[in-house]
Amino acid sequence: MKRKLILTLVFVMLLPLLGGCWNHRELNQLAIALGLGIDKVGDKYRLSVQVVDPEQVAAKKGGAAAERTPVILYSLTADSVFEAVRKMTIASPRQIYPAHLRILVFGESAARDGIGKILDVISRNWEFRTDFFIIVAKGTTAFDIMDSLTQLEKIPAMKLFSSLRTSDKIWGPTTSVTLDKLVTQLITKGKEPVLTGIQSFGDRSIGGTLENVKRTKPAERLRYGGLAVFKRDKLIGWLNQRDSLGYAYVNDIIRSTPNRVPCSKGRNIMLDVIRSKTKMKGDVVNGKPRIKVMVRQEVNVEEVHCKIDLMKPETISELEKKANQHVKALIEHAVKTVQKKYKADIFGFGEEIHRSDPKAWKKLKDNWDAKFAQLPVTVEVDTKIRRLGTVGNPLIKEIK
Question: Of 239, 254, 289, which residue sits at a domain end?
């Protein structure tokens, strides 16, 4: 009886502790951050946070809040990123809550200085998830990117996230990189990181105002373009669109993308890649590493500008050969450009050598940058045309 009484008292004492979370925070006490920009200004860091204005986003047409911007940008400078995050409370009436972050933008100055320290702060903070995309502002600052208002998507950070996610699926020269993927590349010997670049075009003075979204043609536009090449954690240069596509082929991240293949007398035929698979094989012969890249792709014919007979099997065979040559040239040009200009193994050739011959890799890894610059790479491409579309021969051939 005495034991039952003691247990009952213990249960009664524990009941108040079961009433809710000990560290809960009300929604009206938080500022939901969807975009984060980080610049290096001298020896300091400038943090720019794009926070949602809930009243404006939820406001009905014609409401008083309709004249306000859908987001609020808080920006300040501090000696470190962590200090800037805490210091943000002097500007924002609510605590910044980053759990729903969609996009992280590194200004080019911060990227060239090194992103390792910044990622360390973000990785340690339990409020940050790892599913947001990370990009680099090309030729501009992260502040300017965060300060620009966009059309269709009310919240600019959501526009940047959605646009990159869509482009990653149907446009080969872009790639989406999340926090966990970037950290893995940084700590892995034999593969250097690559991030997609974002550019600003037009009138910057209007980009951050409501006037920018009231026009059919915005005064300022944000557009993805080029891949940022890193060595360790520092930005060292950029790939153009052609070499970015070659990079995507080598790293087997092509889901779908258009390919322009010459057909006759300066005219082209557009092929749509519907499936692509790249395999890489590395080995070491007499202490010298080498790589073989094998691409298998299936394409559809989408647009024809030349007078060819697509009903003939030999025509299809010839187009497949030209597609093979086109993709092979893309890959070889991208590899040679990176080898000569940057000497940074963004393709993961070192990883492949490590997998194929761990003993040889132990001797090669300490001097891999120099080895990579001289690495012989063989490329093989096999293209199969699957569909010609709803029309047989091109209309340009039928038109007299």
Answer: 239
Q: Are residues 217 and 308 in the same domain?
A: no
127: tokens are 């409020």
Q: Are strands 194-202 and 133-137 parallel, antiparallel or unpaired?
A: parallel
CB of 226 within 8 A of CB of 197? yes
Examine residue 22 and state whether it is found in any structural domain, yes or no: no
Task: Say what the pLDDT of residue 277 is.
Answer: 97
CATH of the domain at 357: 3.30.300.210
Structure tokens at 381: 């491409």
Number of compact structural domains in the chain: 2
Residue 147 · residue 43 · CB < 8 Å: no
Backbone angles phi, psi at 100, to 5 degrees: -105, 20
> In angstroms, rounded to a whole number, what is the distance separating the alpha carbons of residues 199 and 259?
24
Residues 134-160: tens digit of each pLDDT: 999 999 999 999 999 888 888 999 999
Domain assignment present for residue 31? The answer is yes
Q: Are residues 252 and 192 part of one domain? A: no
The amino acid at residue 29 is Q
Please state, in angstroms and rounded to a whole number, the distance separating the CA atoms of residues 337 and 307.
35
Residues 182 and 252 in one domain: no
| Long-range Cβ contact pairs of 284-290 (< 8 A, separation 24 or more) | 284/353, 284/356, 284/357, 284/360, 284/364, 287/360, 287/363, 289/349, 289/353, 289/360, 289/364, 289/371, 289/375, 290/375, 290/376, 290/377, 290/378
- The pLDDT tens digits for 257-307 are 999 888 877 788 999 999 999 999 999 999 899 999 999 999 999 888 888
Q: pTM of the predicted model, to two decimals? A: 0.87
φ and ψ at residue 197, rounded to 5 degrees: -95, 150
Q: Are residues 246 and 321 in the same domain?
A: yes
Host domain of residue 190: 27-239
